[in-house]
Amino acid sequence: MRTFETQIGRFKAVFSICHMLCVLCVFSSSSSLGQGAQSQRAQQFKAAHSWTDPLTVPLVLSGNFGELRGNHFHTGLDMKTQGREGLPVLASTDGVLARVRMSPWGYGNALYLKGPDGITTVYAHLQRFAPDVQSWAVARTYKGRSLGLDATPPASAGLTFQAGDTLGWSGNSGGSGGPHLHFEVRDTPSQHPLNPLQGWVTKSDSRPPSAPTWWLESERGLASVPANGVDTVVVEDEIRVSIEAYDRLGGASNICGIHTLQAVLKDGQGEVQWTHRFELDELNFSVNKDMNAHTLFPVWKRERDQVHRLHRLPGNRLGVYAGAPDGVVALDSGEVATLECTVRDVAGNETFRTLVFKGGASGLRWERVEFEGVAPQVTSSSDALTLSAPQATLSWDEQSFFEPTQVGWRTDSTGLSARVWPEFEAWRGKVDVTWSFPSPEVMWGISGAALPQDAWPTTQWVAVHEVEGQIKHAIPADVQEGAWRMALPGGGAWRMVRDAVAPKVIPYHSGTPLVQGGDAVWFVEDLLSGVDTLTLTIDGRWARLVWDPKRNMATYEASDDQHPSGAPVRVELEVTDAVGNAATWSGTLVWP
Ligand SMILES: [Zn+2]
Description:
By secondary structure, the chain is mainly β. The chain has six helices and 42 strands. A hairpin with a 4-residue loop joins strand 18 and strand 19.
């Protein structure tokens, strides 16, 4: 855990000031974050312009706006496509294509349609674009010889649409976990995503949100308390509180996000001590990963439960709050305070939870989540931080942490595996690590060197982070002055391995990559460092591949029309991994 001693000092210092500010917030919040500037904007837009929902099938949502996802708030609606790809995707407004993206990651094949009145709509994970868009996009990739694309079509491309026109077909491209349409509404000037269920897209929903669990945080660790049934807890420490709250929408069992939450702490006389409130109507991509500070990260990281802190960490830059107290509950023995929490979904369904705190000897079971078996070494504020540990130096940039956080490092006896803390507390960016080589005996073992004067291998090193046997990260490392150097994206267990194995490139059918319809398909795999580049040439000329890392498939689409028909032609596919191991498939193909 982080040092609560340090924090508690800070909490005490600001508590009385915050108390006053937050009482004011109670009054200002209802006007500034009251019902709907965004929904009004949608109604006015629809009164003045055409609007078409982007799919023609009944609207069923597997995800909504503001839901906690990975390391960010979800910024749109995930519309189910009946488990299929290839449903027509319609322009929601009149507009001109402002951005076309093709990528194996993230939004996949995505279109941004700039509509009237400062509204842009976004359609992501498409299988394919409308023919004129597709041919413009493909031509652009050949011009730039790049597999991906992120470009604005010029006016001369004439890519304008009216509401209801077909923009493309739904798919499962990019970081999509199954066929669906990711749909966003954005404010064009800021590119801030807006909540589409605030009047843009209508979805009936009569189910109130669920709020099953309170989470308490003290210097002793974390404790959970059922939010149904338990109404009084005895606490002896200063604590902070979070609540798990999520929503389910009609027609689907998927766990979605809530829309607003308000928490009010009242003392024994009913006086308001602080109010914490947020509303998820508009997000901002530049700070969207501060979701990690909005949620109770240790629980998010382990359980992926939608838990919301009822306070704002100092480094949290999200603009969704009104009233941002430090959220401390600190009671003398016998003192009482009441926390009231109101959770709403965007349809206005409401769930109310109350928890009474009493000062006294706590019987709660507190669980520690950090620093098993090692003493933390440094506590940082928002400054840059360097940790000099045995065998390694770790450097975090300023603003890496959301509040004072302890860090630590420990290698195992071989010197090839290490643990980085914090593992369960959130931080931004990467930590630069200089990790000294272990003992000569260990290095001899790895390198196969015969003599002490043989040089250790300085290439093909990878820092690997695994979770339950699955490689989550494989970060290439440089070697300088007897140490590995790399930037690690997170805490936890890391081990150094050498990746000297080339990628595997296997044609779809034994002997030929040609499949029905004239596409050419290869399976491409690489252990450890991962596929980095793919280069296809047909008769010596560059050709585009569609890379699908989810299925390890690289496809040349016959519709690109870069191949001759009926004549043998030399085809070469070269693949490299992230540390430079290369493999080439080559053959002579005859397209029908
Ligand atoms: Zn989505």
